[in-house]
Amino acid sequence: MSSTLPAGASCARKEFRTLVSLEEARAITRGLAIRPVAECVPLAAALGRVLARDVLAPRDVPPFTRSMMDGYAVRAADTEDADEERAVELRLVASAEAGRPARMAVGPGEAVE
Questions:
Q1: pLDDT tens for residues 63-75?
Q2: Are the C-beta atoms of 113 and 93 separated by less than 8 Å?
Q3: How is the beta sheet containing 110-112 ordered, strand by strand?
Q4: What are the two backbone dihedrals, phi and then psi, of residue 57, each rounded to the nearest 5 degrees?
Q5: In angstroms, how far apart are the furthest CA atoms of the chain?
Q6: Is 70 exposed, middle or buried (0-12, 13-18, 19+ CB in 10 A)?
Q7: Which of 29, 69, 90, 95 could link 113 by a cystine bridge, Cβ 3.0 to 4.6 Å?
Q8: What is this structure's pTM?
């Protein structure tokens, strides 16, 4: 699906947002009038629903510790000046494989995938 933006419009997205405190978030969610009711539905009808209780797998898949998200290891000091208008360019020096301990260090100006 594609769409056309009006002349002069931008589709830049805001990356850095102001977050609310944990206490404010709890107050907001307590004020919502959502009272979920548990029900059984066929698996094919479960898309978009929320589980009423935890489902535990009998074994770990994959059978090793790994990150839930792909990303990059960087040094915080190298990204201090980065913001929405000023990206920081880092040199990609290595790639860490899932299921294998990373054996490389991240130096100044470097990133590891």
A1: 877 766 778 899 9
A2: no
A3: 73-74, 110-112, 91-94
A4: -85, 145
A5: 55
A6: exposed
A7: 95
A8: 0.42
